[in-house]
Each structure stands twice: as C-alpha cells, then as structure tokens.
Amino acid sequence: MSTEGEYESILCVKPDVNVYRIPPRATNRGYRAADWKLDVPDWSGRMRITAKGKVAYIKLEDKVSGELFAQAPVTEYPGIAVETVSDSSRYFVLRIQDDNGVGETRE
Q1: In sequence order, what are the residues at sequence separation of 6 or more whose Cβ sits closer than 8 angstroms to the Cβ of residue 6?
Q2: CB 62 within 8 A of CB 69
Q3: Can you give the pLDDT at residue 64?
Q4: Which pTM value belongs to this model?
Q5: Max CA-CA distance within the chain?
Q6: Neighbouring C-alpha atoms within 13 Å toward the C-beta of 56
Q7: For a Cys staple, 74 with which of 8, 55, 81, 102, CB 3.0–4.6 Å?
C-alpha cells in the first residue's frame, strides 16, 4: 500500500490522554478497565489521529515537544489495532508498533 505523494490530514487532537500498561487477557472475555491501575498512568500526553491514504494513525505524542511516543496504524475497524473495553465506553486498547512492525498492547 503506497502512500507516496499523498498528504496527511489531521482528523482529531485530544490534548490530554493517559496510557496504561495493561495485563494480557487471561480469557477470551475481553479487556476490562477495572483490571487496570487507572489512578497511576504509565504515560500522559496528547493524541493525534491522522489519515494518509486509506490508513489512519493514532499517534501518542509529548504535549510540549510533539515527540512521538507510540503510534497505531489502523487499516480497518473493527480490527486488531483498536479494541473495545467490555466495561467502559471511555477506554479502549491500542496495539502499538515500533517502526520495525513489532507490536505491543497499550491503552
């Protein structure tokens, strides 16, 4: 999927978001925010959702410098990049990846 020559659009900016390192799912019941330490976020910053071609990117960035902390490319929804949380409509799970395509799950 080539995105050369295409421009990047900003779809949404949330200035204050929290990220939590979450435990792996023990069963197929889904993720539950009640299982996380919501009072102690592992990272705080801003979230920008951008689109380039047919791919959206959820980017977690430092509020001041704009330095990229993590990003989740979203090629389809629902899919593996963004998952709902069974006990909350406020929280969601992102599968973030580094530039080498290695994935890690965070909220």
Answers
A1: 52, 53
A2: yes
A3: 94
A4: 0.79
A5: 44
A6: 15
A7: 81
Cα 75 from Cα 81, distance rounded (Å): 8
Stretch 53-66: mean pLDDT? 94
- Contact predicate 60/17, CB 8 Å: yes
Residue 69 near residue 43, CB atoms below 8 Å = yes
Partners of 58 in the β-ladder: 49, 72
Residue carrying the six token digits 């705080």: 44
pLDDT digits (tens, 9 = 90+) for 22-52: 877 777 778 888 888 899 999 999 999 999 9
What are residue 48's DSSP bridge partners?
A: 13, 59
Q: Tell me which residue of 12, 77, 54 sits closest to 93, measured CA to CA.
A: 77
Q: Where are the beta strands (DSSP E) in 5-74?
A: 8-19, 43-52, 55-61, 68-74
User: Exposure of 55 by Cβ count < 10 A (0-12 exposed, 13-18 middle, 19+ buried)?
Assistant: middle
